[in-house]
């Protein structure tokens, strides 16, 4: 991660901001400061309604979108969660960029706001992201091994 940290971390934050903006534009209630594009980390929080976090997470999972339900300020306890927590780090490693997260936000809006079934479309979308980024490729190992051995 040290080798790729600057490019990776920068892309993670760009992706999270684009994702949060797109979710907001879809009509979802994104937590955070809109002037900062709702986040400055790898996470985006969405308020889906009192006691609806678990149900919303399950609906998304049924449509091939995995998120965590999350208690937000004002919730009585975790079981009464009103929010969803979505991170962008893993899919950034699989090559998603800002426009891809905007597309993903559209799928989430379709499920949560319009009750649409998008599982097949999400599976097709996900099939575009199969190669890991921000890591060494196997063809790099001989050169990297030689560099490492030269330091001893």
Give the helices and strands, then pairings:
Blueprint: H1 5-26, E1 29-30, E2 43-47, H2 53-62, E3 68-70, E4 83-87, H3 89-93, H4 98-114, H5 119-126, H6 141-150
Question: What is the rounded Rg?
Answer: 18 Å
Q: Give the class from helix and strand content and strand pairing.
A: alpha+beta
User: Stretches where pLDDT falls below 50 for ≥5 residues?
Assistant: none
Describe the strand arrangement of the main beta sheet, using strand numbers.
1-2-4-3
Give the end-to-end Cα distance, rounded to a whole number of Å. 22 Å
Question: Could you name the CATH class?
Answer: Alpha Beta
User: What portion of residues belong to β-strands?
Assistant: 5-15%
Number of helices: 6
Assembly level: single chain
Q: So what's the overall shape?
A: elongated
Structurally, how many domains make up the residues? Answer: 1
What is the helix content?
40-55%
Average pLDDT rating:
95
Number of strands: 4
């Amino acid at each position: 991660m040290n080798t790729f940290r600057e490019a990776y971390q920068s892309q993670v934050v760009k992706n999270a901001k684009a994702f949060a903006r797109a979710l907001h534009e879809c009509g979802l209630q994104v937590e955070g400061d809109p002037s900062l594009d709702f986040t400055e980390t790898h996470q985006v929080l969405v308020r889906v309604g009192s006691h609806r976090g678990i149900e919303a997470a399950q609906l998304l999972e049924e449509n091939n979108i995995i998120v965590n339900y999350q208690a937000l300020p004002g919730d009585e306890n975790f079981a009464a969660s009103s929010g969803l927590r979505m991170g962008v780090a893993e899919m950034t490693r699989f090559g998603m960029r800002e426009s891809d997260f905007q597309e993903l936000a559209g799928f989430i809006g379709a499920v949560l706001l319009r009750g649409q079934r998008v599982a097949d479309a999400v599976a097709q979308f996900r099939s575009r992201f199969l190669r890991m980024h921000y890591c060494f490729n196997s063809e790099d190992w001989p050169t990297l091994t030689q560099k490492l051995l030269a330091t001893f």
